């Protein structure tokens, strides 16, 4: 039996089909290679970002030595007057004769002041002079001129000075420490929670203008 004759086009298409198959195989191998390569890549874990520790607030920087200049490099955290206090000076027993004589001797000048958080505290005290009188009134003077008048009282049991006036920095109750004719006013009483400390030195006369 004679074999059937194949069409002429079969001989023409056969080489072309072989080339197409080879090209498809090459493309398939390339895709497999790239896929395997991507799987082998391991992305390194990024190091955790740790925030730098926040430094403590410089609360101690405002605790200055008495008399130190306020024109320093310390950071001014705020500069506001203390909140108003209704000072009950009239409810305190009248001071003794010796206390009234001590307070009314000479003039008292704030030579230095500190505040736990306000580095400008000194400028609100140093220019002022206080003149106490035995009738429990007192004046605040700046450049030898009276700028305010108030009342004072003294609790001789608790050693607390009561100052009632319009000046927001002096108007308060103050724990007192004394050494000769020097007083340190400490803002640490039931009414006064400012933490301000003011050193007052006694002078026999006002400074010349």
Notes on the protein architecture:
It is built from two helices and eight strands, in the order H-H-E-E-E-E-E-E-E-E. The protein is α+β, with helices and mostly antiparallel strands. An eight-stranded antiparallel sheet has the order 1-8-7-6-5-4-3-2. Strand 6 and strand 7 (182-186) form a beta hairpin. The longest helix is centred in the first third of the chain and has 33 residues, at 8-40. It is rod-shaped, with a radius of gyration of 44 Å.
Q: Count of helices? A: 2
Helix content: 10-25%
Q: Please outline the major beta sheet.
A: 8 strands, antiparallel
Radius of gyration: 44 Å
Q: In sequence order, what are the helices and strands, one letter per element?
A: HHEEEEEEEE
Structural class: alpha+beta
- Tell me the number of strands: 8
Low-confidence stretches: 42-77
Q: Biggest sheet: strands side by side, in what order?
A: 1-8-7-6-5-4-3-2
Mean pLDDT over the full residue set: 78
Shape: rod-shaped
End-to-end CA span = 145 Å
The share of residues in extended strands comes to: 25-35%
């Amino acid at each position: 039996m004679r074999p059937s004759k194949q069409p002429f086009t079969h001989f023409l298409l056969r080489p072309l089909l072989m080339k197409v198959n080879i090209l498809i195989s090459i493309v398939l191998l390339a895709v497999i290679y790239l896929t395997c390569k991507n799987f082998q890549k391991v992305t390194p874990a990024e190091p955790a970002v740790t925030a730098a520790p926040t430094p403590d607030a410089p609360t101690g920087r405002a605790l200055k030595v008495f008399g130190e200049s306020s024109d320093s490099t310390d950071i001014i955290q705020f500069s506001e007057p203390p909140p108003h206090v209704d000072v009950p000076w009239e409810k305190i027993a009248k001071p003794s004769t010796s206390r009234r004589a001590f307070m009314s001797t000479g003039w008292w000048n704030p030579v230095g002041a500190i505040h736990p958080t306000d580095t400008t505290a000194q400028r609100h005290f140093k220019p002022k002079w206080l003149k106490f009188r035995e009738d429990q009134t007192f004046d605040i003077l700046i450049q030898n001129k009276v700028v305010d008048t108030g009342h004072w009282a003294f609790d001789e049991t608790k050693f607390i000075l009561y100052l009632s006036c319009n000046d927001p920095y002096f108007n308060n109750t103050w724990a007192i420490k004394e050494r000769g004719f020097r007083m340190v006013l400490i803002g640490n009483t039931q009414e006064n929670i400012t933490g301000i400390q003011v050193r007052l030195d006694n002078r026999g006369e006002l400074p010349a203008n």
